[in-house]
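Hey,

Quick one before I head out. I ran the complex with zinc ion overnight. Inputs first:
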Amino acid sequence: MQINSERLARVFTELCEIDSPSRQESAVSNYLQKLFDDLGASTIKIDESGVVTGSDTGNLIISFDGTNGETTPLLLACHMDTVGPAEGVEVVRENDVFTSKGETVLGADDKSGIAAVAELVTILKENNIPHCPLELLFTTCEEIGLRGAKALAPSLLKSRYGYALDSTAKGTIITGAPAANRIKITICGKAAHSGLSPETGINALAIAAEAIARIDQGRIDSVSTVNLGLIRGGTATNIVPERVEIEGEVRSHSPRLLEEYTRRIEKIFTNVVEAWPAIDGKYRPSIDIIVKEDFPVMSLAENEPVLQRLRKAAETIDRQLSFGVAGGGSDANIFSANGLKTVIIPTGMTNVHSTDEYIQLEDMVELTELLLALVTVEKAD
Ligand SMILES: [Zn+2]
């Protein structure tokens, strides 16, 4: 076995103990630049996305020339940021299971993926193993809305397809993820003293409540969900509330249904506002609705070269793969929408986005084995 699991464990621990909350990824980036430079990277680039994302660095793109005759690089992608609490991470290792000390996340999301990539390249170089050209992408600000990936200029990447190492579902390759819209609705009524002259007020909160009661939420069908998750409004118990803001989201694996459910919500709110009785024949409530695409759908056909290559690689190491879809968006949604078809490979990270996050060393070793097969397998397409 060429994989050095102790080295993998050390690099993983070092990565986790470099704090990298979103927008503060530069220290991790510096660590990776040094590591891959020492391994003989052909190019190391940091893009200009920091200006857009507000991060202290950009996305990090590192390339290695191929040594097996293949000419088009293969993309391996991970994100450098972690969710909070992320300050002062200390890794605890017990029986080859890694956790944090309990006050922070561990950061296996997504440093388990990064550590596997580091071990992969180290093995390739120390054993002179022929491999395809590699493009390694380490993004910023994934956890706060895929901002690094969204701000990445697609022309900076030469790969035709890629693998994001960023999923929890053990053993399940993610080939689809929903699209999402964010909706912000502002209803304006009219303020009035609730005891002296309630007749002259228009209660924005009552309007919102009536509309919300008419909206189906939760799992709407097998591929779509709706959630109104935030409401703000009113100023005092003795004032008829003039203004209420509601924020929510629609997700669907079907772009058509995403559009349909989004329009339905807009229509219900608009209808309720328009039907609301006017005061003195002149004051009417008003509504403002802003819909923003949060991320586009990701849906890969079975015969995509990115999946053919993965299946072939798994065969060479007798690895059983299962395939599924995710409920959330990730950087892979953005890459795939830009034409760079990307599947998501699980790393073994568990209980992510919590202080109970953990990962087993064995899972990272298995991930590295699969990556090794991917970059050395004879081209499938
Ligand atoms: Zn992640």
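The chain has two domains: 5-177+297-376, 179-295.

Talk tomorrow,
K.
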